[in-house]
Each structure stands twice: as structure tokens, then as C-alpha cells.
Write a structure and sequence with these properties.
Length: about 425
């Protein structure tokens, strides 16, 4: 055991070269494309954990800590990360066109997005490597999540946001005490500047596209899905895994992490089958989908979508995303902003969950995949809601429609409500 954890090395996903699990962002030979994948002593982990041991632990994402690259004796952040609820939503299932649909609401994390799973691991690695400051370039959620987790554990944070980051997300950064730098330019410009600043000022770079440890935190959603469906007491879907797990895709870390987490649960013998992954991009930013189907290297694209969290034209983690989707015999699909708006309404009205645009992109993708015959009507689907709807009020209001304005009397009310609901007493 290395550093009091089960990680054995960092393996480049291009050249397969392995490095010790120390402070390193990308493969020194392959450069920025050389994403590193954390390797573990799986035999040892698998001999140590059983469903009973896991089920005796607190209900949060540290319950799978042997699978995380953190010191097994680290002081954990207090904020509650993970173990987000899964809902069975029959009326939304009907709308999407499948037998059964489940939503896993990751908007319930401490800063209201899936990114908290990664940031929680990130701040522990920063402390372990002796940093007192963390930094990130982000379209929003990665940053607000880092700022929140850093505040909870006493680290300083510097955040580089692109020009178009929505105000509510920037507000979240400021209230957590982050130093916020709005970079006059694109996400890519912000990313590059953050990278240079981290080198120069010795800050720990949280950008999960390139930091190998961050994406490991995202695996816990895969671990949880396995346990919530099939573990001790897992009764959803009759104790069987869903046929599909649907995830929205920007940089590619989320789908890559969820996929790796599910594979680990299979390797540990805790599930017998990994669901097929459906990776969903916005039509206005779909470079990973294009690389997936053309079997070529990624070509950076323009971005034109209101789903700001997945508006990524130069994704860093596309190889890992494609690898995991292929490993699961999965598929990819792209949806329009109109379809995303529609999913915002239907997910809220038929499922009771308010997701941000990228948060419900999976639901829109599932519906389209049924129409295209990729998902069959008799299959079961879990869609991860990756961020809460209040994260981006401006866009939510476009989807929600307008309220009615009335005088403070019943006549005025009767004029606007449907006639059939008038009950005469
Ligand atoms: C970051 C994010 C995604 C996509 O994750 P990637 O790792 O960039 O693919 C999806 N939804 C929300 C709400 C996000 O914040």
C-alpha cells in the first residue's frame, strides 16, 4: 500500500507508460493529451470489502474509500457528498417511452452538482501534496464546488471563469470566499491561464480534465448506482441493474468516472452486469460524439448551446469518455436546446426534480434514443441529474414560462383559471 492508499500508479491512456501515484497532472511524454488513469491493487481491495462491510458505513461517497486515491486515514471534509437519492418516476418514464425510468438526483450534493464528488477528492489531494491554495478554470459547477469544499476544509481558492459563466454560479463562488477572475475570453482561454498560474504560483490545479485524481471522485456515483439497485436492501427495479445509465457529456470526465465506478463494482463481484452507457451531448457542442462515431481523433468544435455546463469545444477527457462508453457497449446521442428545455419542464412536472439544462440533458437524450430505436421500450433506464435548476435561473425562466398577474379578487382569478376547475358552492 502506497501513501496509505490502494493506488499503485498513474497510467497514460495514450502510451500506457506508468508513473508512481505522486503529484503529476498529465503524461510527461505525451503532454496535455496524455491523460493519466489511476491504477489500483484491485485484488487486495476486493479481498477486503464485502457488501456487509460497505453497508455498515455512513451513507456518503466515502463508503467506497478503498477505490479512491486518498489516504485511508485522511481527515474527510464534513460536507455531505454523495449517496444522492434515486427516484422511480413512472409518469416521466411514459413520456420518455420506456418501461421504467429512474432519476439519480445529484443536484442534492452540497454545492448542488455532481462536481462535488470530484472536488471532495481534489481538496484532500491538495492537502496531502502540501498545497494551501487550489485553483480551477470552469464553466461554473466545478468552480463553485471547489470553492465550497475548499472553504469547508480551510484552503484558499482562485477561480478562472469564462465570460459567459451564469451569475448564480459566480455568486456561489464569491460567497464561499473564492478569488474570482472573469477571463475575457472562452473557457479554453480560462483553462490555459489557470494552468500557467498554477505552475507559477504553486497552486493545486483542480481542472478535472487533466488532474488524474479528480475524476476518481466521480466514480462513486457508479458505485452508488450499483449498491442502490442491487446491494443489501437494494430493491429498486426488483434488485436488478437498469439496462442503461444516461449521463450528459461536456469534458467527458463524468461519463468516464461513472463508467469506471460501475466496472469496479463488477470486478469486485458486487454486480454481474455493467449497464450500457448513453452519453448525451448538446447539438451545439458535440465533438466527443463526432469522434465516437467517426473513430478519429477529436476535432475541437464551436460551442452554441444554453446548457453551459456541457458547452465544451475542446474537451480534455474525450478518450476516457469514449473508452468507457465503448467498454459498456454504449452509445452517444446529441439533443437540441429545444429538447433540453422540454426535458427541464417534463423532468420537473412529471418527476418532481428541477435540473439545470445540462442536468436534464440525459433525460432529453433518453427520449430521443427511444425514438431512434437505440433504447427499447421494454428496457429500464437511469438518468443522472447532474446539477440543480436554480444554478442557472435565466435559462430556467426561458423554459418555465411566465406567471399570471391578477387583481386581488376572486373575479380576476376566475378570469384566468380554466373554466372546468370552477366549482360552484
Ligand atoms: C460538468 C457537468 C457535466 C458534464 O461533465 P463532464 O465531465 O464535463 O463531461 C454535466 N452536467 C453538469 C451539471 C455539469 O456541471
Amino acid at each position: 500500500m502506497n501513501n496509505n492508499n490502494f493506488a499503485t500508479g498513474l497510467k497514460c491512456i495514450i502510451c500506457d507508460k506508468t508513473y508512481p501515484p505522486e503529484h503529476l497532472y498529465v503524461c510527461p511524454s505525451c503532454g496535455i493529451q496524455g491523460i493519466l488513469d489511476v491504477q489500483y491493487e484491485y485484488e487486495k481491495i476486493n479481498s477486503l470489502i464485502t457488501p456487509e462491510i460497505i453497508s455498515s458505513r455512513p451513507l456518503n461517497h466515502w463508503r467506497y474509500r478503498e477505490f479512491l486515491p486518498i489516504s485511508q486515514s485522511a481527515t474527510l471534509p464534513q460536507l455531505h457528498v454523495g449517496w444522492t437519492p434515486v427516484y422511480d418516476v413512472p409518469r416521466l418514464a411514459k413520456e420518455v417511452g420506456v418501461k421504467k425510468l429512474f432519476l439519480k438526483d445529484d443536484g442534492r450534493n452540497p454545492t448542488n452538482s455532481f462536481k462535488d464528488r470530484a472536488s471532495a477528492v481534489g481538496v484532500l489531494k491538495a492537502i496531502e501534496f502540501g498545497f494551501d491554495t487550489v485553483a480551477a478554470a470552469s464553466t461554473g459547477n466545478a468552480a463553485s464546488s471547489l470553492a465550497g469544499l475548499a472553504a469547508s476544509i480551510g484552503l484558499q481558492s482562485y477561480i478562472f471563469v469564462p465570460q459567459r459563466a451564469p451569475e448564480p454560479k459566480v455568486t456561489q463562488l464569491l460567497i464561499f470566499g473564492a478569488t474570482v477572475l472573469r477571463v475575457k475570453g472562452s473557457y479554453e482561454n480560462a483553462f490555459d491561464l489557470c494552468w500557467e498560474a498554477c505552475e507559477k504560483f504553486r497552486w493545486y490545479n483542480r481542472s478535472s480534465g487533466t488532474n488524474p485524481y479528480l475524476v476518481e471522485g466521480k466514480k462513486t456515483a457508479g458505485h452508488e448506482i450499483a449498491e442502490q439497485f442491487t446491494g443489501t436492501g437494494g430493491t429498486l427495479n426488483g434488485g436488478k441493474m437498469p439496462n442503461w445509465v444516461v449521463v450528459s457529456v461536456g469534458d467527458g470526465c463524468t461519463v468516464g468516472g461513472v463508467g469506471k465506478g460501475l466496472q469496479e463494482m463488477k470486478l469486485a463481484g458486487l454486480i454481474d452486469r455493467v449497464p450500457r452507457l448513453l452519453g448525451v451531448q448538446a447539438e451545439g457542442a458535440q465533438p466527443i460524439l463526432e469522434a465516437f462515431y467517426s473513430e478519429t481523433d477529436l476535432v475541437p468544435s464551436e460551442t452554441n448551446t444554453l446548457a453551459d455546463s456541457i458547452a465544451v469545444g475542446t474537451p480534455r477527457n474525450w478518450r476516457r469518455a469514449i473508452q468507457q462508453i465503448k467498454l459498456s457497449i454504449g452509445e452517444m446521442i446529441a439533443v437540441s436546446d429545444e429538447e433540453i428545455f422540454d426535458a427541464m419542464r417534463t423532468t420537473a412536472r412529471l418527476g418532481g426534480v428541477f435540473g439545470e439544462p445540462a442536468g436534464v440533458t440525459g433525460v432529453a437524450g433518453a427520449k430521443k434514443a427511444v425514438e431512434r430505436g437505440i433504447i427499447k421500450p421494454n428496457e429500464t433506464v437511469l438518468s443522472v441529474i447532474t446539477g440543480n435548476g436554480l444554478k442557472d435561473i435565466q435559462t430556467a425562466m426561458k423554459a418555465a414560462g411566465k406567471e399570471m398577474s391578477i387583481e386581488p379578487n376572486l373575479r380576476s382569478l376566475e378570469d384566468v383559471i380554466p373554466k372546468q376547475s370552477h366549482v360552484v358552492v
